[in-house]
């Protein structure tokens, strides 16, 4: 009996090691980015924000999100933000090919520069509002542009994407959620 | 005339002390809040644009007379508990707060079991047999001579 117990004790380092392996493997395999924060606003109403006009474009306001016909995206972008430029192409594709309504929040930007980007690269947005001092976006919990929120028919936030939407994100994350919302209450 | 001067003087002293209190409250809050861009720095240490904006929010709210807890709640409602550098004492965080104590007790327990086992195994050495006694004697005698 005593011998058996000793036998077991000699395995403790191995067992502890295996537990550690499992613990680290979880992080490696899941590939969750620990610096990416989950939004606390998921399943909450889109907070009320007041945005200013970008000359020549419809102003985005909370009214747009109330009693919407379908799901929509709210994209926070800026002309000085390089990942936003990468993302632009996919926003255009979703707006043109998938008929998704996208609203833009122009974050802490020079309006002339913002207009130039829209002229040059095309406008994926149904309406745009400018948040010049960044204070409105704080209500949204924005901590780095670009960020994108998926809003359902009732104006609730369903998903938040931090960082640029790339092809993978569009095909595997954004569009499936949009399609799921579209199928609700039809 | 002197009363007016005295009045103005008092006004400045009072307004200055209010300002100092506000600055102190803001400074304390900056230290307790996390910059979400450079995530292990506090707002106080960070010069990231978002940190500057959040500092402005904190300062504005203090000037409006909001308490530290109100301001913290405002930010937690928007950014989540992660913005607090010191986690709350809550059920979800129980392992985080009590974990070290738990591990300390596990350590104590293991040490206790180990020491007790050692003392249990400590046996009196067997007395020497006649043969051993003789050979020992021989060795000792040889060394002496």
Largest interface pair: A-B, 17 and 15 residues
Terminal Cα span of chain A: 68 Å
Provide a count of the helices of chain A: 6
Secondary-structure element series of chain A? HHEHEHEHEEH
CATH class of the largest domain in chain A: Alpha Beta
* Share of β-strand residues of chain B: under 5%
Q: Can you give the helix content of chain B as a percent range?
A: 55-70%
How many structural domains of chain A?
2
CATH topology of the largest domain in chain A: Glutaredoxin
Cα end-to-end separation of chain B: 117 Å
Inertia-based shape of chain A: elongated
Strand order of the largest sheet of chain A: 3-2-1-4-5
Portion in strands of chain A = 15-25%
Radius of gyration of chain A: 22 Å
**Which whole number gives the mean pLDDT of chain B?**
87
Write the H/E string of chain B, N to C. HHHHH
Number of helices of chain B: 5
How would you portray this structure in words?
The complex is a heterodimer of chains A (186) and B (145). Chain A is α/β, with parallel strands linked by helices and 186 residues long. Chain A is built from six helices and five strands; from the N terminus they run H-H-E-H-E-H-E-H-E-E-H. Chain A is elongated and about 85 Å long. Chain B has 145 residues and is mainly α. Chain B is 70% helix and 0% strand. Chain B is built from five helices and no strands. In chain B, helix 1 (2-32) crosses helix 2. The radius of gyration of chain B is 35 Å and the shape is elongated. At the A-B interface, loops of A face helix 2 and helix 3 of B.
């Amino acid at each position: 009996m005593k011998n058996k117990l000793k036998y077991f004790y000699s395995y403790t380092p191995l067992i502890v090691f295996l537990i550690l392996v499992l613990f680290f493997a979880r992080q490696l395999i899941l590939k969750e980015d620990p610096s990416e924060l989950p939004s606390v606003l998921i399943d909450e109403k889109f907070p009320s924000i007041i945005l200013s006009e970008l000359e020549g474009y419809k102003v985005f306001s909370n009214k747009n999100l109330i009693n919407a016909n379908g799901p929509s995206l709210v994209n926070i972008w800026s002309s000085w933000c390089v990942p936003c430029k990468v993302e632009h192409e996919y926003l255009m594709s979703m707006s043109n090919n998938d008929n998704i309504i996208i609203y833009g929040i122009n974050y802490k930007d020079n309006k002339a520069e913002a207009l130039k980007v829209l002229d040059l690269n095309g406008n994926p947005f149904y309406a745009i509002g400018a948040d010049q001092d960044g204070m409105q976006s704080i209500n949204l919990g924005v901590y780095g542009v670009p960020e994108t929120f998926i809003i359902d028919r009732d104006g609730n936030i369903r998903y938040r994407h931090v960082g640029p939407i790339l092809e993978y994100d569009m095909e595997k994350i954004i569009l499936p959620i949009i399609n799921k919302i579209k199928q609700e209450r039809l | 005339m002197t009363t007016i001067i005295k009045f103005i003087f008092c006004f400045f002293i009072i307004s200055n002390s209010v300002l100092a209190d506000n600055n102190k409250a803001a400074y304390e809050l900056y230290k307790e809040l996390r910059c979400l861009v450079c995530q292990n720095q506090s707002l106080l240490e960070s010069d990231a644009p978002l940190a500057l904006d959040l500092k402005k929010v904190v300062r504005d709210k203090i000037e409006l007379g909001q308490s530290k807890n109100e301001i913290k709640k405002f930010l937690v409602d928007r950014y989540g508990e992660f913005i607090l550098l010191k986690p709350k004492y809550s059920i979800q965080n129980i392992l985080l707060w009590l974990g070290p104590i738990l591990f300390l007790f596990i350590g104590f327990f293991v040490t206790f079991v180990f020491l007790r086992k050692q003392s249990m195994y400590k046996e009196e050495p067997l007395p020497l047999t006649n043969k051993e006694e003789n050979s020992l004697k021989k060795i000792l005698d040889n060394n002496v001579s």
